[in-house]
Automatic annotation (TrEMBL):
It comes from the Eukaryota. This is Protein kinase domain-containing protein. Residues 67-317 form the Protein kinase domain. PANTHER family: FUNK1 11, FUNK1 6. InterPro entries: Kinase-like_dom_sf, Pkinase_fungal, Prot_kinase_dom, Tyr_kinase_AS. Pfam families: Pkinase_fungal (PF17667). One of its GO terms (molecular function) is protein kinase activity.
Length: 317
């Protein structure tokens, strides 16, 4: 979605005799049965009025994100995002207009959107991450809480769950094959540098990779297995970062507890970035009983990140 503050979008298919409502969100889409315009004129008018509403929530926008526009140019000049702090109290962050949000491409799926904002009390730059997880799965928050104080791992400030749910956008009796309900959550984290691919020197790249590996080891000591080590999930530390925080491991969406049931620990399709996955995980996904995805698979992923840097970059940039 090109509008990062949108939860869903709706449109209308109209022919000379019938019309259908089409709805898209992070779980996919549904299309209403065709209805005759003349027999259901009242419904047709109601739908047109709904799609023309001035209320942002009805149009599918996340109303916790608000913009101010310049009257002359019509461009967005400022913005805010509302969530909760560590004490579950409402807090309004000012969005950084010089840093556009990162939006994961693709209509369906996690739809990760990362906003850059300023903490209203401390003035600290923070990262606010919105993501749509499968409702049957655990959010990354318990792992982030367990990782507090671990060097080389992203640090959480607050978390808000159940911001939205795709079930709420569908009829109560909606049933279709392969449909998966998704829940939107919002987590506020400390802000770090750019992803590893933006390194400016060989020393910076290797230092960041080393500290991210150390962070992975720290996670493992907390019984957390990351499972999604990739070039994009390693950030460089802030300017002048001390050893231990020169590289930051992020994105615990795919993490699991190492003491979980064996069925949960097995290699799973759709987990991780194929380019950086271990040979064992890639080869055995087709098996009826895949092997366990363990810390050695993640270490192999770090090795492929290093190979990516060494073999595909001529120099920084």
């Amino acid at each position: 979605m090109m509008q990062p503050n949108r939860n869903f979008t709706r449109t209308l298919i109209v022919t000379e005799r019938s019309f259908r409502l089409v709805h898209h969100d992070r779980s996919g889409f549904y299309v209403s049965p065709p209805m005759n315009i003349h027999r259901h004129a009242h419904t047709f008018i109601r739908i047109v009025l709904g799609l023309s509403s001035t209320k942002e929530a009805i149009l599918g926008f996340d109303t916790s994100v608000q913009w101010k526009c310049d009257h002359e140019t019509g461009r967005k000049s400022a913005g805010t995002i509302t969530t909760v702090d560590a004490n579950r109290q409402p807090v309004v962050y000012e969005l950084k207009m010089d840093r556009p949000p990162f939006v994961r491409a693709g209509l369906c799926g996690r739809g990760t959107t990362c906003w850059y904002a300023i903490h209203p009390q401390t003035g600290e730059e923070v990262l606010i991450k919105d993501t749509w997880r499968e409702s049957s799965k655990t959010s990354e928050y318990p792992y982030l809480v367990a990782a507090q104080g671990v060097e080389g791992v992203v640090q959480v400030l607050s978390f808000q769950d159940y911001c939205a749910e795709t079930n709420a956008y569908r009829p109560a009796d909606f049933v279709t094959k392969n449909y998966v309900c998704r829940t939107k959550s919002r987590v506020v984290m400390r802000c770090y540098g750019k992803t590893l691919e933006h390194f400016t020197s060989r020393f910076q790249a290797i230092s960041a990779l080393r500290d991210a590996i150390q962070g992975h080891r720290g996670l493992l000591s907390k019984s957390i297995l990351h499972r999604d080590v990739s070039l994009q999930n390693i950030l460089m530390g802030v300017m002048g970062a001390a050893p231990g925080t020169r590289g930051i491991l992020i994105d615990l969406d795919m993490a699991i507890w190492t003491h979980a049931d064996l069925s949960v620990l097995r290699a799973e399709r759709g987990i991780g970035t194929p380019r950086f996955q271990s040979v064992s995980v890639m080869r055995n996904l087709a098996l009826q009983l895949p092997p366990v995805h363990d810390h050695l698979d993640d270490i192999e992923s770090f090795f492929y990140v290093l190979c990516h840097l060494v073999l595909l970059f001529d120099s920084p940039g």
